[in-house]
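Box 3.1 A note on notation
Throughout this textbook, protein chains are presented in two layers. The first layer is the amino acid sequence; the second is a token string describing backbone geometry. Keep the layers aligned when reading.
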Amino acid sequence: MPLVIYVLGLAVFAQGTSEFMLAGLVPDIAEDLGISIPAAGSLTTAFAVGMIVGAPLMAAVSRRWPRRRALLAFLLTFIATHVVAALTSEFAVLLAARTVGALANAGFLAVALSTAIGVAGPQRTGRATAVLLGGVTVACVAGVPGGAALGQLWGWRSAFWAVALISLPAVAAVAHSVPSGRGETGQRPVAVRAELRALRAPSLARSLGLCALSSGAMFCTFTYLAPLLTGTSGLDASRVPLVLGLFGLGACAGTAVGGRYADRRPGRFPFTVALALGAGWTALALLAAEPVAVLVLVTVQGALSFATGTVLMATVLGQAGDAPTLGGGFATAAFNVGAALGPALGGLVIGAGLGYRAPVWVSALLTALACAAAALSSRPSPATDAPDPGPRPAPGPRPDPDPRPHAAGH
């Protein structure tokens, strides 16, 4: 894979760390700023909404910019918002910084996906997507425990400073490695209306929906994994970072395998993996009180979740080939719709008094819905039930209406 794709993965890691680390900082932020826990939790919601809205919006705004300029503008804005967040003592300013940071993050990821696919070429779409999502998986491993550890040692502001600092090498790498022109990524300019027409394709809409459902299933359980481990599995709180690390290691392996699968079988939803994923969520819900089983299942589910997600993201990008700019934005938005939907549903069932196993059952249900939707969409319609007559013969010269031989010279 070209070096530039790994450079983009480094930046995605820094930004993914910012998204995930807040899970361990909410109590400290609430205490320091004198606000309630739910108010501090709204910072996560603001970030998710910013990602959903910002991905297609920022991709559209920056579509005429050279790739390097767009990526640097988004990355520098992202760093600036974290500096502001680390310095402010006002919740409104922090909320605004998180929202603007999410817009910048979404714009960067949308352009990065389009750039990576253009550089890698259509035959390596899956592996290029896997490298970028690999930055997210590493952020899952390092973001939550790393942010929590920094918050405990030096306060929640130190985590925001850390994200700003680890983003600086990415700035230098992007400036040095990303092509400066629009056409150097192998993509031709496409009119906005043409891109929007391409994004209305039914097959693409189905893939976006499957991507959102798969992402929602993963985030529903991952968000509430810590209370499940301590409240149901009986693990000590000190073991939670270890289990999160196992989930992340599985996610890294699943991302790599999913990328290769997507390149070998482009556009195919991995039913076997998705069915195994649903069975795994069911097993985790049933065996949540067994620590050993939980350790194994969390690792496996991390691998299966990200393998499925990588294939679906690569499928979306492949189907959106006629929308090279907005395709990455819509793929990013679909992933983050799940990131917002999953925790909301999980919190709803916990708030209803159904216990910490309930989000895992919701994950199983969302995965089942994804499988059912994919199965229904793959069934042939009545109009296509008739056997395919095969390719039509190419039109040749029209037959001569007069079968008599022509005289020479006539």
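DSSP finds 15 helices and no strands in the chain. Residues 183-187, 381-410 have pLDDT under 50 and may be disordered.
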